[in-house]
Design goal:
Layout (H helix, E strand, L loop, with lengths): L2 E2 L2 E2 L2 E9 L3 H9 L4 H4 L3 E8 L8 E8 L2 E13 L3 E7 L3 E13 L2 E13 L2 H9 L2 H34 L5
Antiparallel strand pairs: 1-2, 3-9, 4-5, 5-6, 6-7, 7-8, 8-9
Length: 174
């Protein structure tokens, strides 16, 4: 394994989806926190902690419903190079990971979205047992949220496209 900031990578995986929408629209929906609840199940909200929002070094507390309780994750932006990529560090009391999100236009109407995840810390008996006997669950969760994001973006994009096309056919005037 390689070293990152003197931390060993414990688990590393990549997830990806192809989204049938232009890259600029995909990135627009990705970069707007108001849409997180649309594709991240359990999302409750966020609170800015420090730094300039959306800039490197910025910290945000993100809250999720988890079972009967709540899970708090602190996001630290490591690099915001949107519309090309976005890298964050995600700290939870039991885990720590980085996630590099990469967006590439395949053509004018199709975008590749890839996420590279590297876990650098697992602490606690239960999380270590889960990592050992069910390592795929971490990738499965990321892939699920990426599919949810794909569905959300495509529904938004095609709804607008459909209305525009319908209006064009009916010769609407705006």
């Amino acid at each position: 394994y390689t070293k990152i900031n003197a931390k060993s990578i414990i688990m590393k995986f990549t997830c990806s989806v192809i989204i049938n929408a232009p890259k600029e629209k995909v990135v627009e929906y990705f970069s707007e926190p108001q849409y997180l609840h649309e594709w991240q199940e359990g999302y409750l909200g966020m609170k800015h902690i420090s730094g300039v929002p959306s800039q490197s070094g910025s910290k945000t507390e993100m809250r999720y419903k988890f079972g009967k309780g709540e899970m708090v994750i602190t996001e630290t932006i490591l690099n915001n190079n949107l519309p090309h990529d976005f890298k964050g560090n995600y700290h939870h009391k039991h885990t720590e990971n980085t996630m590099l999100n990469i967006f590439k236009a395949i053509d004018d109407q199709t975008t590749s979205y890839k996420a590279e995840i590297e876990y650098t810390r697992f602490s606690g008996i239960m999380i270590n047992i889960m990592k050992t006997i069910m390592p795929g669950m971490f990738k499965k969760q990321v892939q699920k949220w990426m599919y949810n994001f794909k569905t959300f973006v495509e529904n938004q994009f095609f709804s607008v496209w459909f209305l525009f096309s319908l209006c064009e056919q009916l010769e609407c005037r705006v």
